């Protein structure tokens, strides 16, 4: 099983706790309809911000993010239009480093 998202969520929680924020974690099971439902649920809870981790950011996502009254940041994902702030790694460098390690 892939532990990437679990480790990422743990890191986010550690930093949030350091700054006295609480985390509400939701899982959409990669279901777009559920993603939008959860996004609206979070906004209804008057959260301070949203860290969104999704694999396929669509134009509909971007439009919903733009309407949000709170900041939304993408983690481990990005929108191709570069309209939503994101936190990512340098994937080209990571691939190079991985291949260098194996060679």
Characterize the structure shown.
The structure is a single chain. By secondary structure, the chain is mainly α. The chain has a single domain, classed as Rossmann fold (3-Layer(aba) Sandwich). It contains 4 helices and 3 strands; from the N terminus they run H-H-E-H-E-E-H. It has a 3-stranded parallel beta sheet, with no helix packed on it. Helix 3 (59-67) links the parallel strand 1 and strand 2. The longest helix has 15 residues, at 4-18. It is globular, with a radius of gyration of 15 Å. The chain starts with a helix and ends with a helix. The relative contact order is 0.12. The mean pLDDT is 89.
Summarize the structure.
With 103 residues, this protein is mainly alpha-helical. It has helices at residues 4-18, 32-44, 59-67, 91-102, and strands spanning 50-52, 72-75, 86-87.
Using brief descriptors, characterize the structure shown.
103 residues, Rossmann fold, mainly alpha, single chain, three-stranded parallel sheet
Major sheet characteristics? 3 strands, parallel
CATH topology: Rossmann fold
Strand order of the largest sheet: 1-2-3
Oligomeric grouping of the chains? single chain
The average pLDDT value, as a whole number, equals 89
Q: End-to-end distance, in Å?
A: 26 Å
Secondary structure topology:
Blueprint: H1 4-18, H2 32-44, E1 50-52, H3 59-67, E2 72-75, E3 86-87, H4 91-102
Parallel strand pairs: 1-2, 2-3
